[in-house]
Amino acid sequence: MSYTKLSDWSKCTKCGDCLVKCPVMQMERQEAVAEITALLEIGYSERIFNECTFCFNCNKYCPENLRPHELILEKFMDARKKKGKISAVIPYLFNGMQTSMWKDIYAMLSKNEQSILKKWSEIPSPSKEILWVGCIGRMSCFDIENSTILQELPKFGPPDLCCGELAYRLGSWKAYTDTVKKTLRAFEKLEIERMVCYCGSCYNYLSNILKNVYGKKLPFKLISLYEWLNEKRESGKITLKKPLNLKTTLHESCYVSELGNEFAQDLRTVYKSAGVDIVELSHHGDCNLSCGAVSVLRTLNLPKSLFKEQSKKYKEVKKTGIRHMAVNCPGCFITLSFTNRFAGIKLHYMPDELLEAYGDKITKPLSKRIPLFMLAFMKHPTFPFKHVDAEISIR
User: Fold this and answer.
1) pTM > 0.85
2) Which residues contact 160 (CB under 8 A, 6 or more apart)?
3) Are residues 189 and 256 in the same domain?
4) For the chain, what is the domain count?
5) Which of 34, 198, 209, 354 is the most exposed place for a label (fewest CB within 10 A)?
6) Per-residue model confidence (pLDDT) at position 286
7) Which residue spans within 283-371 are E strands per DSSP?
8) Which of 88-92, 124-128, 210-214 has the lowest mean pLDDT?
9) Averaged pLDDT of the chain
10) Residue 240 counted as domain residue
11) 292-304 burial, b if ≥16 CB within 10 A, otherwise e?
12) Residue 16 belongs to domain spanning
């Protein structure tokens, strides 16, 4: 199976809306029709493959409710494999693999933190709801485990389980499905009514992608951390302790266009409740600009991929006259953290700052854990990635 075989592409009218409305390519209608036709008929489009940032926005624009994002991703990876141009670094980014960046990162955590992850690997006792903590959240396990705000939630997040985002976004359908099958088997053992997702990416993949692409549903209700915080705030169970008093722009992850207005509003509501005044960027919601992370599929030449896309975002931030950017997605935060200082933009990782605003003490903020990624990459046999293109199959 593959991404595209899960959709009926005979329904595509080749209208080109996905490319005309794309905030990155913004093609004229005639060119858009020609390029989507070429992608469907011969599996190749020079311009799409050179410019697409592999965000999800185009899925929102399709009048037939197809998923152009997945079509583009699969055809791009097919073309790369034919040329033997798939980076050998890519599978290292997936969790649950025999050799994985995440395994190396978790091994670098303190003994206390590793004991917390061991605890989170055990199936918790039956309860109304639990907190699911994904890959990056586990790096903040000490603060999450000792959180007063999250105290009532049993935590679950075995280090080798994953929502499958990185495998999915980086074009490996097989790695994604293998990961999800393993995660779903573990979820079947949970006796709960609701699962609260600490990470927005996990929320997207375990609700939207799992159902609409993979065709499976969870046996319990799933909600985001932001919806949960709003519930607790409205019921009076948590109260604001340290208002953030922050005026900032907002970087929304690619999945915001997939999750729709409800998730976007939950973010804004809980931010406002914590004393955050948001100034909207020109591109937001279903025309949001990417952090550029998945652009590295095109080339590991970072100035030509990641930095190029991030500069577009920073220009929009600077046009507002504000030099702050709130980020809720941990992957986006980490990706942007390598360049924000050069642009003079201060990043705010909102899961940490929101919990602190409502009374938690954050001792190990995500901003301080970023060096672990560089240390993990240095363990990869191809570091510093001079000879990383290999004819390997990762679907």
Assistant:
1) yes
2) 95, 96, 103, 182
3) no
4) 3
5) 34
6) 82
7) 324-327, 346-349
8) 88-92
9) 91
10) no
11) bbbbbbbebeeee
12) 4-86
